[in-house]
Task: structure prediction
Amino acid sequence: MTQPDLAVSTVIFALRGTSSENMVLSLPLVRRIRSPFEGTWALPGGPLGDEEDLAQAAGRNLRDTTGLEPRYLEQLYAFGQPDRSPDNRVVSIVYWALVGGDEFAATFDDENVQWFDADDLPTLAFDHALIVEYALWRLRNKLEYSRLAHGFLEPTFTLAQLRKVYEAVLKRRLDPGNFRRTVEASGQVVPTGERLAGTNHRPPQLYRFNTAQGLIDPDPLTIRTALTHPGVAS
Amino acid sequence: MTQPDLAVSTVIFALRGTSSENMVLSLPLVRRIRSPFEGTWALPGGPLGDEEDLAQAAGRNLRDTTGLEPRYLEQLYAFGQPDRSPDNRVVSIVYWALVGGDEFAATFDDENVQWFDADDLPTLAFDHALIVEYALWRLRNKLEYSRLAHGFLEPTFTLAQLRKVYEAVLKRRLDPGNFRRTVEASGQVVPTGERLAGTNHRPPQLYRFNTAQGLIDPDPLTIRTALTHPGVAS
Result:
């Protein structure tokens, strides 16, 4: 048996837009500058460094592509179909990440890196279209049963701001009253007792995520902590 | 950067015992016959075959170790800490599987393969203790929100049989009344209209899993089906 090459790639999500009313779930792609698929857009990625673990390689990927730090980073899946790369066998271990949309002023300039609407992508190299589809599914699914949305928000936020994040990620309008009841019943957020600073007569309450509630699917290296100290897993 | 070696390993779970009252969650380990960790127990695994995808390699693993077919097989995680193997760098893509406990008469004889109580394992090679701990967490967690238990049962079963499976996997007694109400409310099982054959005056009802309810976390290759035909993912 021939040892396949190993690559680490990262699907990076951000909400981008000029206001909370027009946020678009977006991801950065890299134009390939060599064969195969030269000139085609692809997920950022590359080989694993000698001293790095897999998550570190994914984080480096993300910083090299966007100049940003991940707010959330999770292993997505390992892809290893024999024919996924035309020249040599490559197994890709893929991570997905959230980065903050407010940090885009700092995005550095690279003509071979471009942000796209996650639901309106160009033709992608290799099986990267399948990978993005799966990452989108994971993001949307996980948003509904975890406090994942914190990766898109400031530490404190109003329920309207939280709802806008959900609407942008899920790409559908949500009823404000139902949303409020569902979120409050879930225990995922807790009121801070503060209100949004502003000119309103009665400004909306600020909330924060309930960090006593663990995320489902922590990674294996945090499991021991989660098992011995339930509720402190992040 | 040096390309690491790639291995595929499988954590295989079964419920073993002479009756439904004393089932023990068990897994097979393989005694290593070469360095490093010669003589130490380890998860079954090995390199990826040239024509195989990752799940096929994991299934081959499982058959070679136990002589059994998987009833459930899912990718668990890729482990890639730089120091997890002392001699060369190895990245392991790990699957976990369920096999049926009633098939053990057919288990073939290999002095270097032995079944252990999943909660009472010997010292394991590499980081395999961490891997098993994570697989156990995934199994126990997933049992509670999916119809995973079907991997341990016949196609039709009584609620008492289902509860015995939960008790053996979770390692705790469950109140029969609460269990019945929780399971019935979840919609995970549906009555078949048949009753268990036997001598009882009023034999218990038989149920089957509701295949219209998809498992959470299908793999990426089944996602397209799940998205276009909700409810038929398996």
In short: The longest helix of chain B spans residues 128-145. Residues 76 and 95 of chain B are 5 Å apart (CA to CA). Chain B has two domains: 5-143, 155-228. Chain B is about 25% helix and 25% strand.
